[in-house]
């Protein structure tokens, strides 16, 4: 049975996503960081564990299109691509100190903007909302 007392999830999320993009885009532009580049940098940590295909999947990017994003990030000095010692046909991708700095600075600014939006919720509701959102994002993630 449908719950007619509330809008569909997409109807509620689309305006929120538009608002988030409206505040994120200028931050990324100030850091000269494309949205897909930022999405890739968010998936990288200290160890070069991602192959290009796995990184594309983790960033929800098409594996053929991610090559241009990786080329751009490498040109900027934000990532390194090195042959995988276990299989030289594959590249391992690692975050450089410059890439970590660019990612972390942009993320801090973006999350500061998010805090302004989240401030419209009481603290207890913010905690529950963020936990629920993390849970839904996890279950929505495609499984291997």
UniProtKB/TrEMBL annotation:
The organism of origin for this protein: Nocardia panacis
Name used for this protein in its record: MarR family transcriptional regulator
Record Pfam families: MarR (PF01047)
GO molecular function: DNA-binding transcription factor activity
InterPro entries noted in UniProt: HTH_MarR-typ, MarR/SlyA-like, WH-like_DNA-bd_sf, WH_DNA-bd_sf
Residues annotated as domain HTH marR-type: 6-138
A GO biological process held by the record: response to stress
